[in-house]
Each structure stands twice: as structure tokens, then as C-alpha cells.
Amino acid sequence: NLPPGPKGLPIIGNLHQLGKSQHRSFHKLSQDYGPVMFLRFGVVPVVVFSTREGAEEVLKTHDLETCSRAKLTATRLFSYNYKSIGFTQYNDDWKEMRKLAMTELFSAKKLKAFRYIREEECELLVKKISKSAQTQTPVDLRKALFSLTASIVCRLGFGQKFNECDFVDMDRVEELVLESETNIGSFAFTDFFPPGIGWVIDRISGRHSDLHKAFSKLSNFIQYVIDDHLKKGPSQEHSDIVHVMLDMINKPSKAGSFKVTYDHLKGVMSDVFLAGVNPGSISMIWAMTELARHPRVMKKLQQEIRETLGDNKEKITEQDLDKVQYLKFVFQETFRLHPPAPLLLPREAMSDLKILGYDIPKNTMIEVNTYSIGRDPKYWENPNDFIPERFIDSPVEYYGQHFELLPFGAGRRICPGINTGLTIVELGLLNVLYFFDWSLPDGMTTKDIDMEEAGAFVVGKKVPLELIPTPHKW
Ligand code: HEM
């Protein structure tokens, strides 16, 4: 009793029915074939869930017992042979690395200790925008907000300040993140075709060499950061996870206990860099895009921010975040319409399963389409409209308990950086909206704002968002 799905072609299965954007292709197909859909990518069976009920079953029940991360060529490479957190199957390596990251990177204590980093980087952003404001030049918000999240995440995770770094600059960092993500999100034929055939196609098509080139660039960056830590020794300012793990690698471990290796360290660094930077910047860019398209919401939000925080503040602090409730609703609505990872990360059935009455054979790849769920009229009134007020009296939150809104996933593999990510995006936007008023460049109207998406498994705005800042007059 397999779920229904479109008929595939011999050998390639349904691969020809996937356009550039997988979540949109699945969304369109699910309108015809239903919310639980069976496809084949070459020889690999795939089931896509596009409802809250399906997501709940997969993430709450089966993720705990019978699903694990799918094993793919790209994820094996970028996780240093499954020694990271994000791409690694449920096993001892994953448990140890996740536990370590929860203590050394994501704990409430670390979140508080690193507050000054986020506040400092936001102040720098405000200074940069002020320069454009003086000359009334448009700001490329995609670049500005990417640079904000990248600077914060790399300082939190690696203690690395880009303006003091002679190895990479911000443009290179953006290139590294985007190239790595594109390669992770693209198909390797080896994964979906019979052994030998896929291998040959990957080599002839250049897929194999693209993947390895992208990985080697990321690896060089990671190695640079490690060498820098080894050269400088433990920092007085704060001890980041790289120092902690280097220390663990160098200490003799007790017989039978878990041994941290350089691959674990590099895997975790790859995670922090790839999972930590882009989703946050994408979320802020979509939020600003929706605000620019909806001047009513922009005005209401800025009014609430300025009335609550008061006039002429010199600096926004994280204590200000809890005061502005409407900002939270704006992000909830942004996440609903534009989840940065619309298909979460692919899972795989570890045994034969029965979900919502359907048989899911062992080794089936399982995808949860949070993009479809966020736009399902069964759960959302006027689902395509941007209306933050819908959350005012709603119990729905994004912490993985409500399966109609899953920007951070849910269950055992829920994003461990959820609090860090939310703090960064809320603080970033609070700064941008408190100090400046924003307008569209001359001759442009809200209808001209382009909403096209780009990206493979992390999906952002394709065309830069350029707006003109004016310092707010109190
Ligand atoms: C607004 C910001 C963020 C969003 C929207 C986001 C979203 C996500 C999503 C959807 C997943 C997959 C969950 C699943 O498959 O069920 C994930 C996993 C993950 N995220 Fe985030 N994330 C954000 C920020 C961060 C940050 C700042 C970090 C680290 C510095 C981070 C690190 C991770 C890691 C390591 C995983 C893998 C967890 C695992 O498999 O056990 N994320 N994130």
C-alpha cells in the first residue's frame, strides 16, 4: 500500500519532474497526488509529506525510532565522513557532537556570555548603514545582513573576526557558503543510479569535480581557522568550541571512552558555518522584503519598536528584544511563507514503516515539505498573504511543538541553534528598523519587488533587496 504518486520513467524515475526548486515541484505535484506522495529518484524510493499530520508522524514518532539522516555523497563529504551533527545518522558520533555543541555553543550560559559579540556586530552594521544614509545611497540588504550573520556566527563559533583575518574577506565567505550549499543541495547521480552508472555520469558531467572543488575550498578555510587557533593558543576573550575540541583531541582519553578526532572538529565547524550563517541572513532578508512590500506592517512595526524602546537610544541591547511582541509575529509570518530550509534535511527509513496508513519501505528517503504546510489553506486563512496579526491570539509557535510551522524542524533533530538564530535575526532587524526609515529607490513601487527564490536546500531571495535608509528623526 504505497502512497500515490506520479508515474515515473524507466531508469530516472521522477527526476525529470523536479524543476530547479524541489520544494515548489513537490508542492505542485502534491496538489494532484495528495499530501503523502511516492516518487522515485532513479532507483531510490522517496516519500514526501506535505501535511501537518505527516510531519508530526515523521518528526515526533519515527524520527525517534525508525528514521535517520539520509546518506548522500555530498553530505558524507561535507560532514567529514559523518562526523558532524547535521548530516550524521543517529549514532554515538552524533550524540557526542550534539551534546558538546549544546554545552559549548548553544547553552543559555554561552548565549549570555557572547551577547556582547552580537551587540557589537549590530552596532557596526548601523554605522555602515549610516554612511549610505548620509548620501541617500541604496543599501544592498542581502550583502549587509549576510555580512552581519556571518560575522556573528564566525566570532561565536570560531573566535574569528573577518576584519582581522588575512585569509578570507566577506565576499569570499559568501562565495564559500553559497558554493558549498549549492553543491550539497544538488544531485549526485551516484546516489540515485545503479552502482557504476551513477559514478560514470558524475565524472563525465563534472558533478564529481565540482563537489570536490567546493569541499576543498571549505576545507582550506576550516584548516586555516584551526591553524590560527593552534598558533594563538587559548584565547583570554572567550574559549570557543574550536579551542575546547582541540583540547579534547590533545588530551589522552580513558580506555573505552569517546575519542574526539580532527574529523569531528572539522565536521562541527562545517556545520556551524553552513547551518549557522545563511538561514539567519535569509530570514532577515525575507522579513525586510515583506516589510518593504507591506508599508502598513512596516509602519506599525516601527511605531511599536520606537514607542516601546523610547526616543534617541544610542544602542539596542538584547534586553530590548522581549519588549517588542509584534516583531516576533513578523518573524513567525516570515518563517511561515519563507522557511529557509523548506524541506528540512532529508531522512531515511531505517526499517519498513507504516505512516498514515501507507507502507514506507526500508531505505526510502523521507522529505517533509514545510513550504507546503506553511501555505496550506486547511491551517491558514488567506495562506498566501503576509498578515503577522494572525499570530496575535494564536497558540502556534516555532519551537517544534506545532507541526504547521516548522522553520527549525522538530523532534530529536530540531535545530540546536534555534535560540542563537532567533536572537541574531531579531536583534539585527530591531537595529535596522529602530535607527532608519526605509524607502524604495526612485521609480520603484512595491509591485516591482522581485520575490524569486534561489538555492538548493537553503532557499533565499534571488535578486538583491536594495532600499534607501534615512536616519529616523525623533
Ligand atoms: C534563523 C536561523 C536558523 C534557522 C531557520 C535554522 C533552521 C534549521 C533547520 C530547518 C534544521 C533542520 C532540522 C530538521 O531536519 O528537523 C536545522 C538544523 C541544524 N541547525 Fe539550524 N537554523 C538556524 C540557525 C542555526 C545556527 C545559528 C546554527 C549554529 C551556529 C545552527 C545549527 C544547526 C545544526 C548543527 C543543525 C543540525 C541538527 C541535527 O541534525 O541534529 N542553526 N536548522
Automatic annotation (TrEMBL):
It holds the Pfam family p450. SUPFAM superfamilies: Cytochrome P450 (SSF48264). PROSITE patterns: CYTOCHROME_P450. Heme binds at residue 415. Keywords: Heme, Iron, Membrane, Metal-binding, Monooxygenase, Oxidoreductase, Signal, Transmembrane, Transmembrane helix. The keyword Lipid biosynthesis does not apply. It comes from the Eukaryota. The keyword Acetylation does not apply. It is found in: Membrane. One of its GO terms (molecular function) is iron ion binding. One of its GO terms (cellular component) is membrane. Its cofactor is heme. Its main location: membrane. It is a single-pass membrane protein. Belongs to the cytochrome P450 family. This is Cytochrome P450. It comes from Microthlaspi erraticum.
